Amino acid sequence: MTHTRTRLDRGRNALGPALELVHTGRAPTRAVLTTELGVTRATAGAVAGELQTLGLITVDSRPSASPGSHGRPSHRLAIADDGPVALAAQVHVDGFRAALVGLGGRIAATAPACVTVDADPAHAIGEVVAAGAALLRDSGRRCVGAGLAVPSAVAEPEGTALNPLHLAWPVGAPVREIFNRCLAEAGLDVPGFCGNDINLTALAEHRHGSGQGAAHLLCVATGHRGVGGALVLDGRLHTGSAGLALEVGHLTVDPQGRPCHCGSRGCLDVETDPLALIEAAHRSPDPAGSLLDQATHLLRTDRTPEVRAAVATVIDRLGLGLAGLVNILNPDRIILGGLHRGLLEADPARLRAVVEERSLWGRSGSVPILPCTLDHTSLVGAAELAWQPVLDDPLAALTR
């Protein structure tokens, strides 16, 4: 017993890195964990055992051998199916959604709702927190924290929504403060974190989706309205000096184009979002429905020449914007979400050709452009904010 404790003491600082390896799917076995951590097999075993004791992972000491394999198979490591969860919340122009998200980005339950998001951010945030609290009561699972995704840059360190352009919220709304107050009022004694929805999409995709392994990952995506972007450098979100970096929606792609909320004209935000596609196809949006759903339905089901021409036009605009970003940022991978994912899937050759023709880096070597692969990416990313303290120090976070 003394030897085990000694090994665990030596590996205590490895608990967080070990959990992150399992969380991101990079350590499916104890043998891989040993190699990745650079510790002895005994120390890796002690670390895995402690994470299992904390209820975070499971350790299968007698896994079945693969056909044709030789020797004793290594202990298999997996996320605990009944382990703790994070409460994830998202507010967007068409309403909100709450979810419970476990390690590995696994969504355990969701509660969608479409409501009118009025000028008081406390109303929508209170509603989504209440929905999440109900999910927690029904699940009976422990909550490690809560994360909120909003369609606005979130200024740091204040936690304020600086530019909620597509909501009627006041500029500078203290969304983090409101979120934590609503959590307390719902009886949830957990820390609350907030972030921009596209930033959180990028974080989720980097850890669990099509961005895995990228060192310089650029994410561009449409929300229900508007366009956002994010950059993940060496595993960390690049948020700038105050949390406001990568407002790519306000990159001009047509100087004579539509007026933008930012005061300019022809920005990606108004030239490549769901409303832009609907209007380019000469369709009238249904004010009672989700613009993102309407544009996605149009893209997937309408094959008329008018719609095909509109799709080509919006793809070209998006390609111009991506080419400019490639010239500035030199990413090693681009991932597209929301309606942009659908545009890529509709005509990948056209989009990639525009980017390659208009960017220096594109001409010297193709930049991979991939679709986001996760469902509810902003929710998974919001949960990542809540899970981060646990990933940093599991023992301290779960025994407080």
UniProtKB/TrEMBL annotation:
Domain of life where this protein originates: Bacteria
Organism of derivation: Streptomyces marincola
A Pfam family it matches: ROK
Name recorded for this polypeptide: Sugar kinase of the NBD/HSP70 family, may contain an N-terminal HTH domain
PANTHER family per record: BIFUNCTIONAL UDP-N-ACETYLGLUCOSAMINE 2-EPIMERASE_N-ACETYLMANNOSAMINE KINASE, ROK (REPRESSOR, ORF, KINASE) FAMILY
Family: Belongs to the ROK (NagC/XylR) family.
InterPro entries reported for this sequence: ATPase_NBD, ROK, WH-like_DNA-bd_sf
